[in-house]
Amino acid sequence: MSEPAIQISGLTKKYGRDRGIENISLQVEEGEIFGFIGPNGAGKSTTIRVLLNLLFPTSGSARIMGYDIVKDSKNIRTQTGYIPSEANPYPDMSAREFLRYCASFYGVADAEKRTGELMEMFEAEPGRRISDLSSGNRKKLSIIQSFLHRPRLLIVDEPTTGLDPLMQSRFFDLLRSENRNGMTVFFSSHTLSDVQMLCRRVAIIREGKIVNVEEIESLRKKQLRKIRVEFAEKSGDSLAGLPGIENLIAVTERTVEFIFSGDINILLSALRGMTVSDLTIEEPSLEEIFMHYYN
Amino acid sequence: MNSNLFLRELRSNLKSLIVWTAIITFLITATMSLYSIFLENNSKILAMISILPEGTLQFKGVSDVNDLFSVLGFYSANNVIYMLVLGSIYSIVLSSNILLKEEYGRTAEFLLAWPVTRSQVYFSKLFVVVLNILVLNAITTVAGYISLETCKKEPYNVDAFLIMSLYTLLLHLFFAYLGMFLSVRVKKPRPITTVSVALVMVLYFIFTISNITDNLSWAGYISPYKFIDLDVVNPEYRINLINIVYFTGFSFLFLGASRSMYIRKDIYL
Prior knowledge:
The complex is a heterodimer.
Chain A (H helix, E strand, L loop, with lengths): L5 E10 L2 E11 L4 E5 L6 H8 L7 E6 L2 E2 L4 H6 L1 E4 L11 H12 L4 H11 L13 H13 L5 E5 L7 H16 L3 E6 L2 H7 L2 E6 L2 E7 H6 L3 E7 L13 E6 L4 E6 L3 H9 L3 E7 L3 H9 L1
Parallel strand pairs in A: 3-8, 3-9, 6-7, 7-8
Antiparallel strand pairs in A: 1-2, 1-4, 4-5, 9-10, 11-13, 11-14, 12-13
Chain B lengths: L2 H30 L2 H6 L1 H10 L19 H28 L1 H5 L3 H4 L6 H34 L6 H28 L7 H20 L28 H22 L7
Helix pairs in contact in B: 1-4, 1-7, 4-7, 4-8, 4-9, 7-8, 8-10
C-alpha cells in the first residue's frame, strides 16, 4: 500500500497568547478529497502553515507523501499546490508576470499553454496589474498558480471566499477533474456546504483540537436545520415539546427560531394546524452545529 | 541561490538603485564643482568658519580646518554626509525590507510554498543587496575620482582616496548585514524602515559626539563610524588592519546569525 498523502501525528504549535494547535493527528489517503472544517480561528490555517513549513511545529510531526514536513519541505512543495485563504500576489506584477514567475520555480514544461488554459477557464485578465485587481480576481490567480504544475496534493484554505458562484463552480469542477486524475485535496473551510459537496471524509477542528474525523455521509444523516417561523398571531409556545426541537427562542411575540433535528414531516404536520405568515428553513452555521454535537 | 528569485529582486530594486546612485553622484559632483570657488574665497571662508560653534566641522569628520583646502580633504568632508550617511541609509533600508516585505506584503504565502528553500531565499536576496551596494559604490567612487581629477589644483593621495572608498563599501555592507539581522528578528510583520534609518543616524551621532566631547571618546567605539579613518589628508594615511577585522568580523556575525535565524523563522502573516 502506498504512503498516505498526509500523515499528522500529535502536531502541536503554540505561540504567545494565541492558542495555535494542540496534538493534532489525522491521516489523508492518496486520491481523496479530505475536508478540514472548523470555525474561524480554530487553527485551520495554522495547521496548513505548519504542513507547508511556514511555521515550525512545537512538538509532534507530520509527513506528506512520505516526506518529513520540516526536513524535506522543498520536496513536498515541489509536488504540492497551495491556495492561501487571503490572496495577496505581488502587487507590482501583472497577472501573467505573476504566473510566469510562479511557473519558473516549478519548471513547468508547457507553462505558457497551461497558464493560458487556466486563465481562460477563470476568465483572468493577463495584462492588468495585480494592485488594480479586486480580491476575487486575485483569488483566481491564487487558484491558477496552485494548479500550474499539476500537483499531487492540493492544499486549499477557504478557497471560495471572494469568488462569484460561476467561478466557484468552475473551481469545483477543476478540483473534481484533477482529483479523478489522482490529485489528493486537503480542503480547509468553514463552509459546511462546500465540504459536504466535495469531500468523503472530514476532520472537525475546534479551539486548536481535532474534535472528530467523520464520514460526510454520517454528518449528513445528522442533518440539522435552522428554522424560523412567523405566526399570524401570537402562538409561538405551541411548538415547544415537539421532538427534535432545540434552542427554541422567541424572537418576537409572533416569531420563533430553533434548531431542528427531527423528522421534517412531523414539524410540517404540527404547523398545518396553525396560521403561519412566514417560514424560513436554512442550514445552521457551523458554530451552531458544533454547539449541537460537541458541547 | 535561486536565479528566478534573484532576477526578480534585481528588477524590483533597480529603480531605487538608480535613484539613490543618481542623487549621491549628483551631490558629490555638484559639491566638488564648488571646490575652486571655495579656494578662491579662502579667507572669507576661514572667517566664516571661525564664527561657527566648535564641533561643527567635526560633525563632518574634519579635525583641522586647513584640511578642507586640499582637494581630498574637501572631498572627504562632503563624502561623509553623502556616502557614509546617505549610502548607509540606502543599504540598511534595502536590506531590512528585502526579506521582510514578503511577510508584511503576505507574498511569503506564495514564495515560501513554492519549491525553494529558506536558505535559497536568503542567499538570493542577500546577493541582490550586495550587488546593489557594489554598483552604488562603483559608480559613486568613479564619479568621486573623476571629480577629484577634474578639480584638483595639485596632486593628491590617490591611495588614500581608494582606502577611504573601501571603508565606505565596508560600512555599507556592515549596515546591510545589520539590516538583514534586524529584519529576521522581527516577529510581527511590518516594515522597519524608520527604525533602520534612526539606527544609522544615532550611530553617526554617537560617533560625532564622541569626537567633540573628550570624556565621551570611548562611546565612539559603539559606532562603526569610529572604524573609518577620515583623516585622508594625513600623509601617513594607511589601511588599518583593525578596521578591516572589525568590519569583516561583524559582517560574518550578522550574516551567520541572520541566516540561521531565517531558516528557522516562524513566518506569521
